[in-house]
Design goal:
The chain is of the alpha/beta class and 183 residues long. It is 31% helix and 19% strand. Strands 1-7-6-2-5-4-3 form a seven-stranded mixed β-sheet, covered by helices on one side. The longest helix has 18 residues.
Length: 183
Amino acid sequence: MSLEISPSHLASASEPPSINRLRPYQREIALAILNSVFQRRGLTFSVEMARQGGKNELSAQLELLLLTLYMTEPQNIIKCSPTFKPQTVISMIRLKDRLNDVGFGGIWTAELGYVIRLGNARVIFLSADESANVVGNTAHLLLEIDEAQDVSKDKYSKEFKPMGATTNVTTVHYGTTWDDSTL
């Protein structure tokens, strides 16, 4: 199954947004996640990979594809990380790089220091630190928990999980194996 996008304004891009840039094991995960998003199934995925195994690239490619597909609609992706600096900042940089790679440089915008918008669609990057105030956001397309093993179960359950309750959002927990006390 191939999910490639080539909007007319990307004709000069070096590569259109595509999950085909991913390694086979990443692509298999991406297809399952995208199926849940497109079918509004609201599934929750746990993506465990070794350090440097490609979790963040998988996440950035999913964000890029969903932003591209939904750029005409006011739809949110919410992504949280245990800390804003450096984890959230690194994720934001990676997404900006992927947007630029496919020809969206000068089209995407950054807002408020933690939002990346492409047309009407956006990714809202939040810290899952215990002291972070994150309530009030809604995840329409995807709720991503980066380094889930380092995010408090209580913080996730009370503040992040409700962000997708009314939209039956697909949720992805990215991380490494830790122990039974973590997400």
